[in-house]
Every structure is written in structure tokens, then in C-alpha cells.
Design goal:
It contains 17 helices and 29 strands. It is an alpha/beta fold. The longest helix has 13 residues. The structure holds ligand 1PR. The site of ligand 1PR has 33 residues, from β15, β21 and α11.
């Protein structure tokens, strides 16, 4: 892709004079040359620290640069949770007048730069940062400070920090996107990271900036994922982080708090963090649907049958979605997933309670939220057509960080394998193009089909650890749609590979045979799929004891394990799973 024009950008490539200047200046005395906006603004003084327990008054305002490319609801929620009001940037002037500016970059690098350049924000941003005004960039908000990015590029960035943003190398076995929790290697001048020590923070990205002699003065922490990349930068009052503090639980909130209330806590000597491996994730899943009275409830099936085996045959009710999600957050779940299990037949945008569940949950739950069910094109009773992208956008706006596609991904994969053509029009392709691969999960609902001979089918079969009911030694895993009601002519292996090519960033791998049985994950299936793709795989269905989590992480390459029934019935709390994994030497977020 051609680099955007730089009419108002502060970057001049190669390395801008500003970047060179900054790379050689000390952190305590920032000398900035670029002063096109000089002297007219910025007399505002940084406000004094506030008492944390007091709700912010009118002057406790954070200016938020949201250029409309994606979901920044979680950042808003976290800022509000910490007692601040938010003022949205409407014009470059708003940036220049900000007391403290948060820039949660979302979307693709080129598109973001394009918007910033076209509306004059790029120039204002540079000016603001050069004046050492309080700034926090998040994720793409860090990457844009660099000279350029290889994402659909090269594309010029703001050019404040020397260096090029490049893609992770997946050839060395590391899964891209980098999704999950890592600890950081913290240098001693980080300030906002001073409290976090060895605790993990949440990353989700495919591109990263690399440390070099030219940018080492900026680096406040690095992280290791295949190679050492820049996890955060700090110069005076200017901070930026590659990870998501708004999704990093209480650790992330404490980082944001330190930025918003500088010097509000006694500065002690920072605990030095050590970079670690990517932690294995433990995910709590809430299957949600309306019960017969019309209330939205968390339910749980046995092999996808969610009705009680009583005369009334009612939908099993295991609790309220918002309450349970909040509880799992407190218990230490690394993510929470909502699956709207009747979404295939109901229209999710008509299902306002589900959107409401997301909105309420995201106000208090600061780990990633995934929502699935019913993401497809839809025409309502009045003939109004909604694209899957519109449906997904509404979920993102309501607080989802990722959306999960089930049935529609099966049809897309079938079509792709039949024609060999990527049309760019499937829900999977469209949503991942707009929101990034990392925001799109494909949920697979396969059922075992036993075989005497693996060559009996055209689909990939596996040799089973435990033979089938009639002594069959093999099985293939047939994909289903509509909540397991209809089998399709495609295997889980073929589907996983196809959806990776079509733009899925992660796979949620269920197994109908194991669902709700409590006898452990289907190791044969999870090994098959996690060895076949290079995107993260979430193992799901069958967890009944803490040992099942150790088994799935030691015997397969799953990046995360998801459970529902044992958490809902309070048989095994999330924390016990994590303690057990730690004892077994498996890195988890604590
Ligand atoms: O097809 O795009 O509308 O998406 C529908 C979504 O709803 C899919 O992700 C599909 O997996 C899910 N779904 C549909 N029907 C059911 C059902 O149970 N009747 N739930 C259903 C799938 C499976 C897991 C479950 C694990 C762990 N539930 O999410 O939570 O198996 O359970 P366990 O730990 O208790 O064993 P679309």
C-alpha cells in the first residue's frame, strides 16, 4: 500500500530531525525543536494529585483521542472507573489544550495515520508530545510514535521515536497474533509500571517495535515473544504501552491510576520485573440464551442439550450473565466469553438484553470480553438488511474486544475450499479487515465420527487414544452449524486451516461429545488442530478437574483452556485451576 501523503504530518522520512534530537536528549531535559503550534496554547498546569477515593470533579478530565476506528469503550470505562470524566477530541485544538491525553490507537497503522494527517491531529499530537505534556499511548498509540510501520506498508508514522514497527516472525513457531498475558522486563525509570513487578499484562497485536541503540533512551520495558520487543516507552511525562492496561485486570488499573494521578502514591524502589513466557490463559465461558419466561440466563448443556430432563423441560438456569462475569473477573479469569447460543435463529441486534449485558459487564470487568452468536448478514421483518459487519460493530461498540463466529465461518470455509477464491465478502474477511484478525475468533462445534479406516473419508482423521464404541480406532471431526443441530461436509481440521487463511485470529475449539461431561478435553482433537494452525487455539469442552487443564497444556499446543460447567456449579474455582497449573510449572497470570 502506498504511504499516505504527509501534508500535516510531523514525520519526515527517514528518521525525522525530531526523532534524532529526542533519541539523543536526556529524559529529564526534553528539548523539542518542532514548534509550529508554539506559544499560543498550553498554559494549563498539570492538576494536583487527587484523593483516590473521591469521585472526580469537573476539572478531573482526561482528553481522549478516539478517531473512530474501533472500540475504545474499555478505555473509557477504565478511565471512568478511576474517577475521571472524559472529553473527546473533536479538533486539533482539543489536543493542544489537554491536561492529560490518552490515545488508545485501534485498527490498522496506515488507516490511523491517514485520519490523523487529514484532520490535522498528527501535527497537534507531535506538538503536544514535544512539549512533554502528560500523554499515554496504548497499543497502536505506541506504534504510531515511531518512524514507520511495515503493516500494509511501509507507512510513515509520527516519527517521534527512531525505529520501524514490524510483524512478529511466526516461522520460529510463535503464534501470531501475540495474544495473552506476559510479564515485562522493566527498566528502572518506568514510573507508571513501578508497582507491577513480575505480574502479567495483556497484549494483543501482530506488529511490534524493536529496541535499538537509537531508541534505547525511550524504552521503559521490553517483553519477550520470540524476540525482545518494546513493551513500553517513557520520556518525562510521555508514556506509551504496547499492551492494554484497560484489559490487564487490577495491574492494568494500577498502571492507569499512576498515569492519571502522578506521584499520588509514595514512590518506592520499583520491583524489577523479568520478562516471561506467554502465560496460558484460563477462560470462563457463559452460554447465554432467553429462558421460556424470556429472561436472559446463563445456561449449560450436556453435549449441547441445555434443557432440564424434567417434565417441564425448561432451559437450565445457572445464573445471571453480568453477575457471573463479574465474579469470574474477581476470581482471576483471564478472559470472559459470552456465547449467545440461540443467535443462529434470533437476530442479535433485536436481542437488546445481550448488548446490555455486554455494556454492564464492560463497566466493571477489565479483562478481554468475547461475544459470539448470530454474527451473519440478516434481513429483519421490515426488509431492512444488516451486514455481519454491522452486527459485529454493534457488539464491539457495546464492549466486546473480540467477536466469535460459528455457523457463518463454516459456510465461508466450505465455499473457500470449493472455489479456492477469497471473495473478501464473508463475515470473517470483512470483520477481520476492519477490526484486525486479533478481534475475530472462529468457534468450531465438531462432533466425532468414528471410523475403522482413516481412508474411508476425505477429511483428516486421527488415531484415537481411546477406541470408539465399536472398537473403531479412528475418528474424523465433523463440523456442525446451528448449535450442533446440523452436520456439514467439512472436518474441523479443514475448517481450521481455511478460516486461518480467511483472517481468523484465534480458534475456539469445542467438542460436542465432551461438552458438559467433565471427563477432560478431547486431547486428540486439540492436538490435531493446535498443530495444524499458527494462530492461538482455545481448548474447550469437558473440563471436570484441575488436572484436565494441566493435561491439555502439557499434551497439546493450546494457548488457552475454557470451561463453563465446573465454574458455574462452583465445583472448581478459577483460582484453584491457576494454583494447580503453577504448581505443575505452567506459567499463568497470577
Ligand atoms: O453459530 O455463529 O450463531 O454461534 C453460536 C455459538 O453458540 C457458537 O459458538 C456455539 O459454540 C455456541 N452454541 C450453540 N449452541 C450451543 C449449545 O450448547 N446448545 N454452546 C452452544 C456451545 C460450548 C462451549 C461450552 C464448552 C465448555 N457451548 O461454549 O461452554 O463446551 O463447557 P464445559 O466446560 O461445561 O464442558 P453462531
Amino acid at each position: 500500500m502506498e504511504a499516505p501523503p504527509f501534508s500535516s504530518s510531523c514525520s519526515s522520512s527517514p528518521l525525522s530531525s525530531t526523532a534524532r534530537l529526542l533519541s539523543s536528549s536526556s529524559s529529564s531535559s526534553l528539548l523539542f525543536r518542532r514548534n509550529s503550534f508554539s506559544k499560543t496554547h498550553y498554559s494549563a498546569k498539570f492538576k494536583s494529585p487527587r484523593n483516590l477515593s473521591v469521585r472526580a470533579s469537573g476539572d478531573s478530565v482526561v482528553t481522549l483521542l478516539d478517531y473512530g476506528a474501533g472500540n475504545v469503550r474499555s478505555v473509557r470505562n477504565a478511565i471512568r472507573y478511576l474517577g475521571f470524566d472524559i472529553k473527546d477530541v473533536q479538533t486539533p485544538e482539543d489536543i493542544l489544550k489537554a491536561d492529560r491525553l490518552v490515545f488508545p490507537g485501534v485498527g490498522a497503522f496506515a488507516a490511523a495515520m491517514d485520519v490523523l494527517n487529514k484532520n490535522g491531529m498528527a501535527e497537534a499530537l507531535c506538538s503536544y508530545i514535544e512539549k512533554d505534556r502528560p500523554f499515554l499511548g496504548i497499543c497502536l498509540g505506541l506504534q504510531l510514535l515511531f518512524e514507520s510501520s511495515e503493516e500494509n506498508g511501509p507507512v510513515n508514522g509520527l516519527g517521534l521515536i527512531p525505529g520501524v514497527v514490524g510483524r512478529f516472525d511466526s516461522s520460529n513457531g510463535f503464534r501470531v497474533p501475540h495474544i495473552g498475558w506476559n510479564a515485562l522486563h522493566i527498566k528502572d525509570n518506568s514510573e507508571i509500571l513501578d508497582d507491577i513487578g513480575n505480574r502479567h499484562v495483556y497484549f494483543v497485536h501482530s506488529y511490534r517495535a524493536m529496541p535499538s541503540d537509537d531508541n534505547k533512551e525511550w524504552i521503559s520495558s521490553t517483553c519477550n515473544y520470540g524476540d525482545n520487543f518494546i513493551a513500553s516507552i517513557r520520556r518525562g511525562n510521555v508514556h506509551a504501552v504496547q499492551f492494554h492496561p484497560e484489559k490487564s485486570g487490577d495491574v492494568g488499573l494500577s498502571i492507569l491510576r499512576r498515569f492519571l494521578y502522578p506521584k499520588s502514591t509514595t514512590t518506592k524502589k520499583p520491583t524489577e520485573g523479568k520478562a516471561s513466557k506467554l502465560a496460558k490463559r484460563v477462560i470462563a465461558c457463559l452460554d447465554v440464551r432467553a429462558n421460556d419466561k424470556g429472561d436472559l440466563v446463563v445456561t449449560k448443556g450436556d453435549q449441547y442439550d441445555v434443557r432440564e430432563h424434567t417434565e417441564e423441560n425448561e432451559v437450565r438456569n445457572l445464573g445471571k450473565p453480568v453477575e457471573l462475569a463479574g465474579q469470574y473477573y474477581i476470581d482471576g479469569a483471564d478472559e470472559v466469553s459470552f456465547l449467545n447460543i440461540t443467535g443462529f435463529r434470533d437476530f442479535p441486534l433485536g436481542d437488546l438484553p445481550m448488548l446490555q449485558v455486554l455494556r454492564y459487564t464492560s463497566e466493571n470487568v477489565f479483562v478481554p470480553l468475547t461475544v459470539g452468536g448470530g454474527i451473519r448478514d440478516f434481513t429483519d421483518a421490515n426488509g431492512r438488511h444488516y451486514t455481519s459487519l454491522e452486527v459485529a460493530s454493534e457488539y464491539f461498540r457495546s464492549g466486546a474486544d473480540k467477536i466469535s463466529i460459528g455457523s457463518d465461518a463454516v459456510y465461508a470455509a466450505e465455499e473457500y475450499l470449493r472455489t479456492g477464491v477469497k471473495t473478501g465478502k464473508t463475515s470473517l474477511e470483512q470483520i477481520s479487515r476492519v477490526y484486525g484478525n486479533q478481534a475475530v475468533v472462529v468457534s468450531i462445534d465438531p462432533r466425532r465420527v468414528y471410523l475403522k479406516n482413516p481412508n474411508d473419508v476425505e477429511f483428516k482423521a486421527v488415531k484415537l487414544k481411546n477406541p470408539g464404541p465399536n472398537g473403531e480406532e479412528y475418528a474424523w471431526y465433523q463440523c456442525t452449524v446451528n448449535g450442533g443441530r446440523e452436520g456439514r461436509p467439512i472436518g474441523a481440521y479443514e475448517l481450521a486451516k481455511a478460516v486461518e487463511e480467511l483472517g481468523a485470529g484465534e480458534i475456539l475449539l469445542n467438542c460436542i461429545d465432551c461438552d458438559g461431561q467433565g471427563k477432560g478435553f478431547d486431547i486428540d482433537l486439540i492436538k490435531l488442530i493446535s498443530d495444524a494452525v499458527s494462530i492461538p487455539v482455545i481448548a474447550s469442552s469437558g473440563a471436570g478437574a484441575v488436572e484436565h487443564f494441566t493435561e491439555v497444556f502439557t499434551k497439546t499446543n493450546a494457548s488457552a483452556a475454557l470451561a463453563a460447567g465446573i465454574f458455574h456449579r462452583k465445583e472448581v474455582p478459577v483460582q484453584s485451576v491457576k494454583e494447580h497449573l503453577l504448581q505443575e510449572g505452567i506459567e499463568v497470570r497470577i
